[in-house]
Specification:
single chain, 866 residues, alpha/beta, Carbamate kinase, VC0802-like, TIM Barrel, 4 domains, eight-stranded mixed beta sheet, binds aspartic acid, binds magnesium ion
């Protein structure tokens, strides 16, 4: 018998002519492969939702809703160039009858709902099959109820809820079925059947639960003992994180069943979680593909091969999680407490996901897909539990899981990622004994930042260090249609290597700046359309040539001290006061007077100046820096928002600030927030802006919303840059919502980090195998970021650029301090005394933070000529 391949197409993959053309292409290539394609498809996207609304009597006018569904399918038939469609007419008639019958007194109502829902897929078949036939395929349309028979849940002891689920979320077997194989072997060269649908032993039509076309296809693949199941949708597979939130997430090419199961059950929607159990024991592979990028290799789900070492594959996230903490009332070591508590939850029909226990309390997480929070159900559960324990409910949580093999082997690397929890509470941690997943439950509003950070630290690194690993291209590239393997991004210092080596030979060590990079970074931000002003945060690098370059592109300056203002006055003799914004923090009164005397606008970030020095501000225009209540950034010490930060006026003081300003007779013309740095999530600034715009409603004179800086720069090789188009899109929408507000930004690092490198020469090499040290002429007195923040800087041996790495080394400086380490465990070629070593991304917070510690002069600055 010819082998079968079951190919499932989702709701977006059947909605128009281009999609059907892709289906035809896939069918053709499977025929070429010599297998028999069995196509299982969904209803056109949105149709099941509408049918559900009709069945639930949630549409005001069912007739009108039906007419809309009919129009949608007739329009598709026209788009596909079909003539009369008798099958479609018959299916529409069947649907109309089912809708009319929904209030009949006979039969359980779940069965009538299922009959209505199942029509969506039938309507699609009725249009798609004639089109495929018109393309010359020998297609047999087989109704799914002939192929899949459901298995009602336990007959005895089945609850009413179980019986309802037997119609709306039915289960089937996936054992090989000779009858079904024989039936389809006889059919035409291509078989098409609808997903989502099966037959109950009582003869009625049942559905397999929302998203159940995947499941139908998996059951069928099992019954047919198919060579594989292919699932085609608008996403090419599973990613290292949800790509809509983390655009740098990478496609995963290979997963084993257990890992894929973790990903589907902890949040990803690309594959229904019931598919895997149906195929796992049969070892039938699942291939995921995208109809939008048909040539892209997607995700293959296969039996496990790699064992042993720790391997992280993805970070997944589930929202709407509710935690219930149950504390026993002093009955220590009480027998049966858990059993009683779980009984209550089970009786409410809720399922428990995670559990953690201590001597006196138990915390359980409930998966609240159905708006549990507002439901009477939760109240009832709490009520019943309260009879024997103290109950606390924590709503709106997210469960964030690290998924992979031997996750416990990664625990030691979590340190930096977990720093974020100093600011935000973790409610629960659970490590699955299968060692496949480590889950943190946090407040939902923190989840974005936690996921972003864990992903940046753990997965981007994993993908980088394993070029042959299971990881595919990042989502940003797939979306942009760039699918070849990522080429090494050419950096300016590759091109100017000879000059750099000459500079290092002459000076021993030096910061070297490329002004073209400064200008091009400025222009990138100035090109983000909704941004009206780019104020360069000159604390990042105050070199006169850099200041000149910034000004020449049209940028202004953000200063934090009188010294910085004086530097500008030295460099430019025609600078206007409004090209500067002064943002001091805990500065003495004299600093404010210094700026005000010059007419420079300033930002206040505390009430103290207004309370204690009212005369200074009478009649003045000021901006207020508010603390958004949370912070983010690449390290704890650069988080500048949130409870533990010294910056900004907290929310609860805003009213007082307004009253003070009014009393003094000052005017608030702008609001500002700067909540961290090194941020690569493009939506961050839109969120900040929205928050400020809301606050601005209380300040009639506000016209400026300054969303601060923090624009991240990829510090590791392979990390994609901040997606500025996405940033622009978000800010454009923000502007559209608040057209009267001007948007300002204050980038520092973004402008200069990549424009500068630190060069040093190798002084000594120590150690053979094991721990090897490479010493440089430059150390923490030149670049303190690694010691201070644990910052990562790419380090290369410029003299031996391109030579194969020999082994990991510790790159250290000449300062008498054990923290004088620039890089840990870095791949490095065989090196010699005198080689020139380059430390990348040293243009920001390099020389400005350097010192004469040990009475060693820090590296001097050199600007490259054009
Ligand atoms: N049409 C069904 C739904 O939307 C099944 C599926 O598409 O997987 O839930
Ligand atoms: Mg789906």
């Amino acid at each position: 018998m010819q082998p079968f391949v079951v190919i499932k197409f989702g709701g977006t993959s059947v909605s128009g002519l281009p999609q059907w053309e892709s289906i035809a292409t896939v069918i053709r290539s499977r025929l070429d492969e010599g297998v028999k394609p069995v196509v299982v498809h969904s209803a056109i996207r949105g149709v099941t939702d509408r049918l559900q609304a009709i069945a639930d009597d949630e549409t005001p006018d069912a007739e009108a809703a039906l007419a809309e569904i009919a129009d949608l399918h007739r329009a598709l038939a026209v788009e596909l160039g079909l003539g009369p469609t008798p099958d479609l007419d018959a299916e529409l008639e069947r649907l109309a009858r089912a809708v009319r019958a929904r209030h009949d007194a006979t039969g359980p109502s779940a069965a009538r709902t299922a009959e209505i829902l199942a029509c969506g897929e039938r309507l699609t078949s009725a249009v798609g099959v004639p089109w495929l036939q018109a393309q010359g395929f020998d297609v047999t349309r087989v109704d799914a109820t002939e192929l899949l028979h459901s298995r009602p849940r336990a007959q005895a002891g089945a609850t009413a809820l179980d019986r309802e689920r037997d119609y709306l979320s039915a289960l089937c077997d996936s054992e090989a079925d000779e009858a079904v194989r024989a039936r389809l072997a006889e059919a035409g060269e291509v078989v098409v059947t609808q997903g989502f649908t099966a037959r109950h032993p009582d003869g009625s039509t049942v559905v397999l639960g929302r998203g159940g076309s995947d499941t139908a296809a998996a059951y069928l693949a099992g019954k047919l003992d198919a060579r594989r199941l292919e699932v085609w949708s608008d996403v090419p597979g599973m990613f290292t994180a949800d790509p809509r939130r983390i655009p740098s997430a990478r496609l995963i090419h290979r997963l084993d069943y257990a890992e894929a199961q973790e990903i589907t059950t902890t949040g990803s929607r690309v594959l229904h979680p019931r598919c895997i159990p149906a195929l796992r024991s049969r070892r039938i592979p699942i291939h995921l593909h995208s109809t939008l990028h048909p040539h892209l290799r997607g995700t293959e789900v296969l039996p496990a091969t790699e064992r042993g070492h720790a391997h992280l594959k993805a970070i997944s996230r589930k929202d709407d999680v509710v935690l219930i903490t149950m504390e026993t009332l002093g009955m220590w070591q009480e027998v049966g407490f858990l059993a009683r508590a779980f009984q209550v939850v089970a009786e409410a029909g809720l399922s428990i996901d995670l559990v953690s226990t201590s001597e006196t309390s138990v915390t359980a997480s409930l998966d609240a897909s159905a708006n549990l929070l507002d439901s009477a159900l939760l109240a009832e559960v709490v009520d019943r539990l309260s009879a024997f324990c103290r109950v606390e409910v924590i709503a709106s949580c997210s469960a964030i899981s690290l998924v992979g093999r031997n996750v416990r082997g990664l625990l030691h690397r979590l340190g930096p990622a977990l720093e974020i929890f100093e600011e935000h509470r973790i409610h629960m941690v659970s490590l699955a004994s299968s060692d496949l997943n480590l889950t943190f439950v946090v407040d939902e509003e923190q989840a974005d930042r936690v996921v972003e950070r864990l992903h940046a630290i753990l997965l981007i690194e994993a993908a980088r260090t394993e070029p042959d690993g299971p990881f595919g291209p990042p989502w940003t590239r797939i979306r942009a249609g760039i699918l070849e393997p990522e080429e090494q991004r050419e950096r300016w210092w590759h091109r100017r290597r000879d000059e750099l080596i000459a500079i290092a030979a002459e000076k021993g060590g030096a910061f070297v700046y490329d002004l073209d990079t400064v200008a091009s970074q400025m222009r990138k931000l100035l090109a983000v359309e909704p941004v009206s002003r780019v104020m360069y945060a000159m604390k990042a690098n105050a070199h006169p040539d850099i200041l000149r370059t910034v000004r020449a592109t049209g940028g202004g300056f953000e200063c934090v001290s009188p010294g910085e203002i004086e530097r500008l006055e030295e460099v430019f003799d025609d600078l206007r006061a409004d090209e500067i914004i002064f943002t001091p923090n805990f500065a003495p009164r004299a600093d404010y007077a210094f700026a005000l005397d010059r007419g420079i606008p300033l930002t206040l970030d505390a009430l103290h100046p207004l309370q204690q020095w009212p005369d200074l501000f009478a009649g003045r225009e000021v901006l207020l820096r508010v603390d958004p209540g949370w912070g983010s950034g690449h390290h704890e010490k650069v988080v500048t928002g949130g409870r533990h930060s010294k910056f900004g006026i907290p929310h609860f003081e805003i009213d007082e600030a307004r009253a003070l300003v009014e009393r003094i007779g000052a005017r608030v013309i702008g609001l500002h927030t700067h909540s961290g740095s090194g941020i690569l999530d493009p939506d961050h600034w839109t969120r900040v802006g929205e928050r400020l715009a809301e606050l601005a409603e209380a300040f009639p004179e506000v016209r400026i919303v300054n969303v601060g800086g923090g624009f991240g720069v990829p510090d590791r090789e392979g990390l994609p840059p901040l997606p500025l188009e996405a940033l622009g899109d978000g800010l454009t929408e923000l502007r559209a919502r608040h057209p009267h507000l001007e948007l300002w930004v204050e980038p520092g690092r973004f402008v200069v980090s990549e424009a500068g490198v630190l060069l040093g020469r190798i002084t000594q090499i120590k150690g053979k195998k094991g721990l090897r040290y490479v010493g440089l002429t430059v150390g923490m007195n030149s670049l303190i970021r690694p010691a201070l923040y644990g910052a990562y800087h790419q380090i290369v041996n410029l003299t031996r650029l391109g030579e194969p790495p020999e082994g990991p080394v510790q790159v250290v400086g000449p300062i008498c301090e054990s923290g004088d380490r620039l890089g840990t465990d870095r791949p490095f070629p065989e090196s010699r005394e005198g080689d020139v070593v380059l430390i990348a991304n040293a243009g920001a917070y390099g020389r400005v933070m350097s010192s004469e510690y040990n009475l060693r002069a820090p590296a001097e600055e050199v600007v490259l000529g054009a």
